[in-house]
Amino acid sequence: MRNEPHGRGVETGTPFPPVNHDEPHEARGDRLVRLEALGDRGVVEVRTERHGVLAVGVAAGRPFAVSNVCRHQFAKLGRGRVTADGCLECPWHRARYDVEDGSMTSGPKGRVFGVKPYSAAVKAIGGRLRLATHPVEIRDGAIWLSA
């Protein structure tokens, strides 16, 4: 487990961010994942035929499906968590994303990456390089692609 200032971290075998997918759930056509599979983090990785691996979850009571790669150091967002304010938080340096439009709402944090000018620069880039978002809906206790 990689430790950082606030006690959260992700399991990796190295000091580097997770760059591989964490045994993603497999979508069945447009049915991405059952709601109970989201667990405490509110998000999981889901492999789809059309879009590759997505970060899929529920934020602020609404389902979402976004690209799975953080714009900072390419950690897998489906291994992160949904915050109380409805953002998707990266598991590596806690950059946060608005799952509605894919924009980075706050830059990375941590011992090195919490330096405000660095975090602001990453956020500026992340604001331009938004996550891809995909329309989804909840049906029959699962999250489905809706288009």
Count of helix runs: 1
Q: How many strand units? A: 11
Number of domains: 1
The SS-based structural class is mainly beta
Beta-sheet strand percentage? Answer: 25-35%
- Can you give the helix content as a percent range? under 10%
Q: List low-confidence stretches.
A: 1-10
CATH topology: Rieske Iron-sulfur Protein
Using the CA coordinates, give the radius of gyration.
Answer: 15 Å
Mean pLDDT: 81
Quaternary assembly:
single chain
Sequence of secondary-structure elements: EEEEEEEEEHEE
Strands of the largest sheet, in order across it? 1-3-4-5
**Shape annotation:** elongated
Largest sheet: 4 strands, mixed
Q: Distance N terminus to C terminus?
A: 38 Å
Provide an overview of this structure.
The chain is mainly beta and 147 residues long. It has one domain (25-145): Rieske [2Fe-2S] iron-sulphur domain (Rieske Iron-sulfur Protein, 3-layer Sandwich), CATH 2.102.10.10. Helix content is 9%, strand content 31%. It contains 1 helix and 11 strands. The protein has a 4-stranded mixed sheet, with no helix packed on it. Strand 4 (52-59) and strand 5 form a beta hairpin. The longest helix is centred in the last third of the chain and has 13 residues, at 116-128. The radius of gyration is 15 Å and the shape is elongated. 37% of the residues are buried. Residues 1-10 have low confidence and may be disordered.
